[in-house]
């Protein structure tokens, strides 16, 4: 079990923490649980979970602000588990960097399946096993979750941004439709997924120094999808 992925659970309800821990450990994961954001953030200085399950209704911190910071600074997959069921809540959570959004009440088996989907490594062809890939003078490091520019400047990328970039690097110069994105990256079809993809791609373009009016690397084919135009080294 020492090599099993570690899942961090942040929820102020003891029964939710117990339910999630039991389901995840039965499925072969390791878990660690926290009731308060301050305890969770202190623990992140010592541990590196593969995924974090975050409740938004925390007693000591705004859950959305925490999600945003994690997406910016951590390579962990971030899954929100919340009773907030409005579409705008889901869209906001995904825009701030969450990889997925599960509404309470939930089935533990669904949470396990969503985590497995988020942690599943995509099948690769010539790039199998490569965690550092060069393209157009850039270096993408998927172990460190970083981009290094042709001039040597390093920029962190979130887990969600890394997933999208990896998808592009695995499929250079090919049209990638919304349906293919949904199949590759997982999630639930609909407005919130489409909006989240648009936000992640916009952030990637910014980090790659793209002109939003005339991007060179990630081209939008309106009504069809996206094409990544860089040559892969």
TrEMBL record:
Annotated OmpR/PhoB-type domain ranges read: 130-230
Q: Which CDD domains match?
A: trans_reg_C (cd00383)
- Coiled-coil annotation reads none
Task: Report the residue ranges that make up the Response regulatory domain in this protein.
Answer: 6-119
- Using the record's annotations, give every residue carrying the modification 4-aspartylphosphate: 55
Keywords in UniProt for this one? DNA-binding, Phosphoprotein, Transcription, Transcription regulation, Two-component regulatory system
The record's InterPro entries line, in alphabetical order, gives: CheY-like_superfamily, OmpR/PhoB-type_DNA-bd, Sig_transdc_resp-reg_C-effctor, Sig_transdc_resp-reg_receiver, WalR-like, WH-like_DNA-bd_sf
Q: Which SUPFAM superfamilies match?
A: C-terminal effector domain of the bipartite response regulators (SSF46894), CheY-like (SSF52172)
Q: Which Pfam families match?
A: Response_reg, Trans_reg_C
Where's DNA bound on this chain?
130-230
Q: What protein name applies here?
A: Response regulator transcription factor
